[in-house]
Amino acid sequence: MFITFQLVHEWILTPISHTRLVKNFTRQDFSAQFTASVGGVFWLLLTPIANITIYAFVFSYIFKVRAVEDFGETSFVLFLMIGYLPWFAFAESIGKSTSLLLDKAALITKVKFPVQVLPLSGTLVPYLTHTIGIVLLLIYLAINGYANVMWVILPAILFLQFIFTMGLVALLCSLSVFLRDLQQLVALLISVWFFLTPIIYPINMIQSDVVRSYFLWNPMHSFINLYREIILLGEISVINLQISIVFAATSYLIGGWLFMKIRPAFGDVL
User: Fold this and answer.
1) pTM for the complete prediction?
2) 48-78 per-residue burial string, b: 16 or more CB within 10 A, e: under 16
């Protein structure tokens, strides 16, 4: 029990104990995205914009989804963007998690350093990148009269989503050291998870109340719904908030504990 507490305590204190190292890894990984790239930051904006445009065309003009009733008759494109941008940060973090330690194998095996900073920096980079898009969207919505006092809660929701993601990243990157096929499996699961989360469709399109209740077991549904409620309605669902807090804390603590527990074996396997 004491060893478990010690591992979790060390995991939680990582951002404070190794602040400089976290900053260096984050800066290095962030800059690496633009190395030898002509478009630079342009590509970071192009991918979500292109995907949103495609989905908006398909659902707005082919399937004729004009407005979302439960969110004040909001246009489908805005509804889609509010859900898609936070998802994109989550999906990119999870997608890169399986190669996080493998890409740093040479460093891990030759240099002794607190390897637990890697899941943190590996999650920070996608979130820092896509927060830019979220802020630009919020500016646009504020100009168009959507701003309300509840927006002050948005950083807290984003933080909960961040630590939820970080726990999964720690779990997946540690397991991928021993299970190399995990990379292909995670890529598939992200695609499935995307379509099981009401991002490109409103939840009221599902007629069955029983089926809709199953979505409460999907934490990303609660996160996405919280963003939409706060931004568009100035409201917050208590059940979605409770689910988000529970899943965030559970993911962060269990993922971090497992990472710290099997950390000594990384050097031998890599």
Assistant:
1) 0.91
2) beeebeebbeebbeeeebeebeebeebebbb
